[in-house]
Amino acid sequence: MDEKIKKIAIEAVKKSGKMLLGEYGGFNRANVELKSHHEIMTKCDLASEKIIIDAVRKNFPDHRILSEEKGGLKGDGEYYWIIDPIDGTTNFTIHNPLWSISVGIAKIDKNGTKKMVLGIVYAPVLDEMFLAELGKGATLNGKKIKPSKIKSGKVLNAFCHSTNPKDIKKAIKYYSYQKLHDFDCRQMGSAAIEMAFVACGRIESIMIPGAHPWDVSAGALLVREAGGKVTDFAGKEWNLDSRDIFASNRLVHGRILKIINR
What we know:
This protein has 262 residues and is α+β, with helices and mostly antiparallel strands. 35% of the residues lie in helices and 27% in strands. It has seven helices and 15 strands.
């Protein structure tokens, strides 16, 4: 991984986080814009996105970008930035601290295959920065992290979903089953944070039907580099073209995949 790219990515995420913290305390939920029946956007999403995209364009003008609000921005370089300027916008608007900035960077080979090489999930209110680099493990504020070793009894699962009604119904069905049969199941409202929580052992798994790359690309690398497992619902290794994602501490993976697919 190019050290300059990593440095610029971290600096941009921290700058965005500082700006968002300044807006967070006094934010009025009336000032939101509906993107769809289930999705909202704020001026803070756009401001955060601009900070990060400007940093990429200034330092690496040939890099490609995919961002939640702006969509795909063209480039011909070998690096591909995947940006969620606020993952957990609803939490942000109701002053729930579980929101984050997620930046994943993939490297594109000669065949056009994208491989994640850097993942950053930063939760400004918690002052927690999760970082993963391909082949170098995962850290929380500079300290190595590992998934939990819990495999039964106290298993804590999380879930999220896209805005597609089919995905929502699948998530609700999963939630209902887990609440009745396992220790607990929760929707925290930030897929990136939930992925990071799997990576550091706070929860055992997260399932997301209809996952968007900007929500999970950084978190997927975090889980893998920490020692967890990330697949689609068929059990195949997750990649940026996968539609669904399931991440776990590895120990519960097979059992919970069966529940997802029952």
